[in-house]
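Possible race condition, two jobs.
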Amino acid sequence: MGTMKKNMIWNAVGNLIYLGCQWLVTVLVTNLGHFRDAGILSVAMSVSATFQTVAMFGIRNYQVSDVAGKYSDTTYVSFRVISCLAAMVGCIGFSLINAYRGEQLLAIFLFMVFRLAENFSDVLHGIAQKNERLDIAGKAFAIKGIGILATFLAGYRLSGNLTVGLLCMAAFSVLTTLVYDLFSVRRLSDFRLYQHNKSWLFLAKETLPLCAYLFLSSAMVTIPKLILEKQCGSELLGAYSSIFAPAMLIQAAMGYVYTPFAQIFGKHQQQKDRKSFLGLMLKVFVAILVLAVLMIIAAYFLGTPLLKILFGERILPYTSLLIPILLAIAVTSFFGFLCMIATVQRNFVFLLASCVVGFACCVLLTPPLLSASEANGASYSLILSTVLACLILAIGIFWTLLAKGKNKREE
């Protein structure tokens, strides 16, 4: 088995296990508890997801496509340590300002700890990917997925308290990151956790547009849910999120179609091989499209029975939410792919512009669409905003490709 094929299989399988187990956590909360706990969990997941973008800073695709080695592994790692600390401060500050208190605030904090362990693993997995060892990431995610499901179930089931379950899950994730991820990747690269020469400041300055893009693109998914909770309450958000969670597995599967190719796109970009770049883009685009169509068809025929099996009779009044959610997932998957391409191109202007426009539309469209279509309005808002963002970004990508092709002919 070739290295690339082996990496893709391990990465896909490991991540699907990981996300599948995360999804099962939401299923357990809905089935063992009630929609109120599911609503609190959804708020914790949504708020922490927005602020984990500060920790991620959008540099993963930048990191693995840095084939020239502009920045060292130590620079990427030390910057991630600093960005994780900043993300935690921002998350807690936002939660206090927005009057989250008691159980909600504690759930947000614990889920943010869990997210930050995941985010620190991400920069380590970037080093592994550059060393053609993405299988390390896949194995790590498989271990973590099974572990967080087991520890959450034990804590939640024994105590009947969501907070205890999240505490157990977060502790296991932090421990696994330190014991497995850090140890495995240190064998590939001699990096330090902090760099005294402050080169991470130059990395931060250069990739600031990526952080803004990641924050805004994450907020495009989060804002409709938060507005839904404010306008319609935690119970309806809990039902919406329960259906949204398994759909995220499909988005993850689509992500695994294109994520392993970031380094290859980077090589085509460095070699100014526009033909190979466009050819690979087309193949990946078609693969995502095929997955999206199959997903919608399967959901049309099997969605309601599967939701009934997973969540019981009480989910039946909400099954009409499924198809709009899946359409939103499909559109955001295409947008994620285009964002990766723009990052490889270092096309930060169009990347940021698409996210600003998409975010603004999401904020403006969600309240009236919720009033008109109830919970489906959250999905409709995300679809319309993301389609507009995709169009802007596609224009920027092809504009850049044409400009580079012209420059190459002139040379």
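Job #2 (started ~2 s after job #1):
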Amino acid sequence: MKTMGLKALYLVNPKRFPDEQASARASGALDVLEAATVCQTLDEALQGTALAVAMTARRRDLSPEILTTREAAPRVVEHAFKQQVAVVFGTEMSGLTNAEVGRCQMLASIPANPQYPSLNLAAAVQVMAYELRQGCADFAWSEAPARELAGFEDVERFYQHLERILIETGFLDPEHPKRLMHRLRRLFARTRLEKEEVNILRGILTAVQK
């Protein structure tokens, strides 16, 4: 992270922190490690963000839009100039869960040999950090202003509101929800909802409620 100019490290429910082994391996970048923010959940870590990118090597059913790291990086950088963004990595052994991917609006994958796409976590972070660094250079040539996206909290409140209305109207059976909300999350994730758009949608839901 430090090599590529990144400083904001968030750790979600780490087994140990601080950790002597981690400090020893942080060779010259102990300042980044010591300044890390520790969160208990991914939702907590994503508070205040407007765009989150899930990093995964696995194709997933009902996932948000999937891009290569090179395609994703300039889009991330574009929004990072105005709003908080996040790149989300899973654990070394199992990566991200489907629920964690569902919290993100974009999915990025490192192009690799399809017969052996595995990278360890450190290598994956380095590749994406490099692409973000390159994305900064690409953005300098772009004059198009980034749209102001709705924040993570606003979008999650919208999903909660939407689910309540779908249950109240009988469209969604909470006993047999199937995958309706997953599909709706995927649909809205593709649009990159703006704050005003979320307000309009919630206004519609409130009118339906009345």
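Residues 121-139 form the longest helix (19 residues).
Logs attached separately.
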